[in-house]
Specification:
Blueprint: H1 2-17, E1 33-39, H2 41-44, H3 55-67, E2 72-75, H4 83-88, H5 96-106, E3 110-116, H6 119-127, H7 133-155, E4 160-164, H8 174-177, H9 185-208, E5 212-214, H10 237-251
Parallel strand pairs: 1-2, 1-3, 3-4, 4-5
Helix pairs in contact: 3-10, 6-9, 7-9
């Protein structure tokens, strides 16, 4: 019995004096990051009634420059622009894609491009005419071709790409917002179907270019009146706060 107790004591002492192996502490990534945002007013920050404005890109810039010094967020988006304008320019302004590609090719390190475009393609199609089924098909083909070319050029820069889904503007407050007063109830219904076709194409294009599809409508911003401007299309400051949280969580993983 005495021998057994001695063995137990020695084993216990060995266990207590054995070196302790610590798990490695995760290292926080603080490398500078460059984000270039392309799109329309929903990215430019139209109707942002907060003190500093700037929409969701300005908000993530404020966070990243503190968390990852040297980071930059370059917002190229323009209110009212379509997928064609993004590629070819509008109103005497140069296009967004050339500036985005040039920036992304010049910078080193972590680089990201975001694309959120298409709402104006839809609005203009139904606001300024009563398109036939053939015209709707031509419009879909044009939108798909524009996004294909946009993503192709961005992918060649080596940047990680994120593409926002459009959702259905007819279910926002847009029909009652007053901006598109010539759009009839029937046209809003057809716009919904066209928007679904746009989003289906975005899914395929995202897969083609290994881009991440971003469901901005998961925030429910566009269906929450307190987070929207009265026009029913653009978020207010609080709405852009919610969008910034989603984009930041999606972009920085």
């Amino acid at each position: 019995m005495k021998c057994s107790l001695t063995i137990i004591a020695l084993l216990t002492l060995a266990a207590c004096t054995a070196p302790i192996t610590l798990m490695p502490t995760p290292t926080l990534d603080v490398r500078p990051i460059t984000i270039v945002t392309l799109g329309d007013s929903l990215t430019e920050g139209d109707k942002d009634d907060s003190k500093d404005g700037g929409g969701w890109p300005r908000r993530i810039r404020s966070i990243l420059t503190v968390q990852r010094p040297g980071s930059q967020v370059i917002n190229l988006a323009r209110a009212g622009w379509t997928s064609s304008d993004l590629l070819y320019g509008a109103n005497g302004e140069p296009n967004q894609i050339d500036r985005a590609v040039d920036t992304l090719r010049r910078v080193a390190g972590v680089k990201i491009a975001t694309v959120w475009i298409g709402a104006n393609d839809l609005f203009y199609l139904y606001e300024f005419g009563d398109p036939t089924p053939d015209e709707e098909r031509v419009d879909r083909d044009r939108f798909i071709a524009n996004l294909d070319e946009t993503l192709r050029q961005l992918s060649e820069t080596g940047a990680e790409i994120f593409v926002a889904q459009i959702g259905d503007p007819a279910t926002w407050g847009a029909p009652a917002g007053g901006l598109f007063f010539s759009t009839t109830p029937d046209e809003w219904s057809r716009l919904s179907k066209q928007a679904a076709a746009y989003d289906a194409a975005l899914q395929l294009l995202a897969a083609k270019y290994t881009a991440t599809l971003v469901d901005v409508h998961a925030t429910r911003v566009f269906h929450t009146p307190s987070l929207m401007d009265p026009d029913g299309i653009h978020p207010n400051g609080r709405g852009y706060d919610a969008l910034a949280k989603l984009w930041l969580k999606t972009l920085i993983r």
